From TrEMBL:
Gene that specifies this protein: rdgB
Species of provenance: Neorhizobium turbinariae
Cofactor, how bound (note): Binds 1 Mg(2+) ion per subunit.
Catalysed reaction, written as an equation: ITP + H2O = IMP + diphosphate + H(+); XTP + H2O = XMP + diphosphate + H(+); dITP + H2O = dIMP + diphosphate + H(+)
E.C. numbers: 3.6.1.66
Annotated binding of substrate, by residue: 13-18, 75, 163-166, 186, 199-200
HAMAP family: Non_canon_purine_NTPase
InterPro entries, per database record: dITP/XTP_pyrophosphatase, ITPase-like_fam, RdgB/HAM1
Superkingdom of this protein's organism: Bacteria
Name of the molecule in the record: dITP/XTP pyrophosphatase
Annotated function: Pyrophosphatase that catalyzes the hydrolysis of nucleoside triphosphates to their monophosphate derivatives, with a high preference for the non-canonical purine nucleotides XTP (xanthosine triphosphate), dITP (deoxyinosine triphosphate) and ITP. Seems to function as a house-cleaning enzyme that removes non-canonical purine nucleotides from the nucleotide pool, thus preventing their incorporation into DNA/RNA and avoiding chromosomal lesions.
Residues that hold Mg(2+) according to the record: 45, 74
Assembly and oligomerization: Homodimer.
PANTHER family cross-referenced by the UniProt entry: INOSINE TRIPHOSPHATE PYROPHOSPHATASE, INOSINE TRIPHOSPHATE PYROPHOSPHATASE/HAM1 PROTEIN
Family to which the UniProt record says this protein belongs: Belongs to the HAM1 NTPase family.
Amino acid sequence: MRKLDTKTIVVASHNAGKIREIAELIAPFGFSAKSAADLKFEEPDETGTTFEENAAIKALASAKASGLPALSDDSGIVIDALDGAPGVYTANWAEREDGSRDFAMAMEKVEKALQDKGATTPEQRSCRFVSVLCLAWPDGHTELFRGEVEGTVVWPPRGTDGFGYDPIFQPQGFDTTFGEMSSDQKHGWKPGDAQALSHRARAFKRFVETCLET
């Protein structure tokens, strides 16, 4: 495992929601960070078939373009009744013909697919959010960190916080969706805490333990 020995990194993302959440998670560690969007890097084609492959593609592209370590996230919702879909294609389900993304439309697609499968009870709508963080260096070295949180798909969507599919994801043991939680509630973690709630916070905790803590 390679330790991160700089406080200057690139957040390898063009997704405003992810950039905001990663910025919130790294802030306590004093990082100076700009996103791939800020630096106007082109978005690489995500040709991988796993979260790990796509996270590495994004992080390596930004690391090589910037000459700095880059931290990426590839994440999605995995729904059991839909045989794991949308999975690595979570963002694709939100794409419109003009290239924009409409997550309200994507959530409706999920609900229609579940209804078509006859998955109407909470037990039939089990799912998990998955996040894989990749830290990449310009020399091609990578470290990968995976976090998952189990939950249930609910309908109709609830809450306006968060982003993406958060309004239909109710984490196990809670009666509120990620869309109804503040950032602090959703992450459920800050430096020094033993537990984390969100998939991204769980992956980030592993990143901290591996690459930052001595």
